[in-house]
Write a structure and sequence with these properties.
- By secondary structure, this protein is an alpha+beta fold.
- Helices cover 50% and strands 13% of the residues.
- The chain contains five helices and four strands; from the N terminus they run E-H-E-H-H-H-E-H-E.
- The strands form two sheets. A two-stranded parallel ribbon has the order 1-4. Strands 2-3 form a two-stranded antiparallel sheet.
- It is globular and about 30 Å long.
- It starts with a strand and ends with a strand.
- The model has no long low-confidence stretch (mean pLDDT 83).
């Protein structure tokens, strides 16, 4: 489980160029983000993120937040 602030910190750490997007591949390089995305529903992180990434495979913070929320791992 993660708070929005924790999720934002993890996202910002991976968004090296600060363009507001990270690639789905970069997400899997971060054990912290990978753990938070892991859905309790049995859906893999890759399957869950496929719903939210754009045509270039990038994910915005808002998209990531929705994926984590859907996985049931966002503390509000």
């Amino acid at each position: 489980m993660a708070t929005e602030q924790e999720l934002q910190s993890l996202f910002n750490a991976l968004d090296g160029d600060q363009d507001g997007k990270i690639s789905s591949n970069e997400l899997f390089l971060s054990p912290g983000l990978n753990a938070v995305i892991l859905a309790e529903t049995g859906t893999s992180p890759a399957e869950l993120l496929a719903t939210y990434r754009d045509e270039e495979g990038n994910i915005t913070f808002e998209d990531l937040k929705q994926a984590v929320k859907k996985a049931g791992n966002l503390v509000e």
